């Protein structure tokens, strides 16, 4: 049932907001945990709290969510008709809905709870109690859908069009209340001619008052140079991001004193390198279709990169080399799951992006795209990665299998630029990132970047 909903989710949302549907104010998380019941004599018998998800949408959304969440299936079935009638009567004599309208609206909105159980579980820190709660939610809402025959209301499964980010999403977003709410801007490049690659990331964690700045370069014949500022207050570290043209051109300037490592694995061990100076003045120009994720607030853009990189006085000039940038915002617990992320550029002009997301206790999740040169973007339905690591914790190679298209790609690491991620509660993730060479089973080649988030247990 969940797979069928996901397959037509965009069409379902559009149908529920079509002309003629009854719309209203939607709380968005209307459950018992967000209700305060007054005692006898109180000014209000009921106060609903936590309005941070309020929106305008199908009017029966909250009623459907409450009925699906609050009661075990047996109790809901036993009292369903009585509860619907009580809801309708509470609307008053001039209500714009009949009882049958209420019943049909709740039926159609029963899917809201299913999607909430899926998406919310991906955005918060994982706990044993949380696992139990989300699985209970999912089971109850699925039962609600099946009991009401709501599957019959779903649109026919048609090929969904890839989503495109809004130009306004290039800028910063209002922070949520989650402790690990995070907004990040990421950039990478590979210059095979000069033998240098690198990546830059700004990560804002406002509810922990942290500001991550990470800028690294590496190469097959170069040390790994890292400028790392995990609080955003290191002396001499400067980072400027500028949207030149939304979704088309982005300028990044970074400079600071960092450390050079002949053995990049030392970065995962928390070791020290020798002092080094790093500066980048680069422009990312879009070279493909911007791609918006469906289940997360995030987008990826394949690019070409031009400008200069200077390492300890040695200057490299880049001219239209392959690169990638992305922008992500929302609750992000980097220490609750593993993943393999890739952004690849093949010599025939094909751009590839894929994520193999590994949430403990959940089925595999794969997202991404194939963008053949001169052809429309193809959204991936499955991304499977098989990686090989050395004893020092650095990756050696990874084999990707992508669907649709049955494409197999082999990634071999050319140079390393890892970092160690430490949460405020002490949890640790090894976060190796690497410039990779790419070969496909059908004989194509290319380059790109890959990352492997590996939570220490």
Automatic annotation (TrEMBL):
The keyword Glycosyltransferase does not apply. Residues 334-455 form the DUF7064 domain. It comes from the Bacteria. Residues 296-332 form the DUF7065 domain. Signal peptide: none annotated. SUPFAM superfamilies: AttH-like, Protein kinase-like (PK-like). Keywords: Transferase. InterPro entries: DUF7064, DUF7065, EcKL, Kinase-like_dom_sf. GO terms for molecular function: transferase activity. This is Phosphotransferase enzyme family protein.
